[in-house]
Amino acid sequence: MIFRMICMWLFVLILAGCVSRGGKRGNTVQITPGVTVAMPLPAQLGYNLTASQLVTVEYDGERHQLPVQLEVEAGRLALAGFSSWGQRIMSLTYEKRAISTSVMSGLDEKLPDPGQVLFNVMLSLWPPEAWNALLASVGWRLKVGPKQRLLINDHGDVVVTIRYEAELYLDGAILFVNHPLKLKVTIKTLNYSR
After folding, report:
1. In the predicted structure, residue 155 carries a pLDDT above the cut 50
2. Does residue 2 have a pLDDT over 50?
3. How many whole angstroms separate alpha carbon 189 and alpha carbon 178?
4. What was the pLDDT predicted at 43?
């Protein structure tokens, strides 16, 4: 009887540890302390996209990898991050100008904010025209050059540099560097369909 009770409690604890935490918010993201901007709509990408990507984050002397699945349809974007053993540990849905997130319990502090991951992906892939008015509303701009983008703040400082290995962005690695945070993100697309 005691053994059964112990097993039952262990089962309950394991289930409780697997519960995801998350929330729902508008389609804004904080791009620097005190500066928040709305993100483009999923449809502004201009095409449907399904992609499997490997996101590598280097920050504060640590390096983490996160396999990611990205799906974009006309009115909806879904992003999911997985552990190395294939379990979903983070998910995000963006539709109707609202972002819903879910992060596996216990990993809240260890994983990047899903909204920030979405910002990195959208700033890297969405056309500059989708960003121009949104960034201009806070005095920022996106400067586009051959195989690179620069996110420039209202003081003229380069905050983010994005470099592309290939002309078709998804055909090569994308390097995203946030200079003030000393954050480096490499997005490698493993496969995709449009």
Report:
1. yes
2. no
3. 20
4. 95
Class of domain 21-193: mainly beta
Q: Is 100 exposed, middle or buried (0-12, 13-18, 19+ CB in 10 A)?
A: middle
Per the listing, tokens 């918010």 go with 25
Least confident of 61-65, 102-106, 127-131: 102-106
Distance CA 72, CA 80 (A): 12
Question: Is 161 within 8 Å of 144 (Cβ atoms)?
Answer: no
User: Which tokens in the block code for residue 130?
Assistant: 């989708």
Which one has a higher pLDDT value, 136 or 88? 136
Q: Give which of 81, 119, 82 is closest to 99, Cα–Cα.
A: 119
More confident residue, 120 or 165: 165
At 162, phi and psi to the nearest 5? -120, 125
Q: In angstroms, what CA-CA distances link 59 with 23, 41, 68, 102?
A: 25, 28, 19, 22
**C-alpha closest to that of 157 among 125, 180, 136:** 180
Task: Compute CA distances 125 → 44, 61, 128, 139, whole Å.
Answer: 10, 27, 9, 21
> Which of 47, 32, 29 shows the shortest CA–CA distance to 131?
29
- How much is the pLDDT for 156? 97
Residue with tokens 């929330």: 23
